[in-house]
Amino acid sequence: MIGPAIVLAILVGVFHSASFVLIRGSAGGQVPLLILAASLGAWAGDELGGRLGLDLLRIGDFRLVAASLLAWVGIGLVALVAILGPTRRAKAGS
């Protein structure tokens, strides 16, 4: 049996990743990493919101605002690593 928090965290992660790609225009092949980071961030945000008592908007026991905030933190980390990471160079003769 899968708990509802995991399913909602994945849905929140996919939604915010899609919003990021829509705003930015493209993701350059980072979409799976964005979805993973946003989903894990949303799941962690729900748990952190529960510990801190951040219950601004809830779906059942799922804290949507805290989950959304940490989903964007995860997206921001992936975007930051993509900007600061090494770039691929074209092969000579191509």
The helical percent reads 55-70%
- Main β-sheet, in a few words? 2 strands, antiparallel
Q: Categorize the overall geometry.
A: elongated
Number of strands: 2
SSE sequence, one letter per element: HHEEH
Number of helices: 3
The domain count comes to: 1
Mean pLDDT: 86
Q: Work out the strand percent.
A: under 5%
Q: Distance between termini?
A: 51 Å
Q: What does the radius of gyration come to?
A: 16 Å
Order of strands across the main sheet: 1-2
Provide the low-confidence segments as ranges: none
Structural category is mainly alpha
Please specify the SSE layout and strand pairing.
Layout: H1 4-24, H2 31-52, E1 58-59, E2 62-63, H3 64-84
Antiparallel strand pairs: 1-2
Describe what you observe in this structure.
The structure is a single chain. The protein is elongated, with a radius of gyration of 16 Å. Strands 1-2 form a two-stranded antiparallel ribbon. It starts with a helix and ends in a 10-residue tail after the last helix. The protein is 68% helix and 4% strand. It is mostly helical and 94 residues long. It has one domain (4-80). The model has no long low-confidence stretch (mean pLDDT 86).
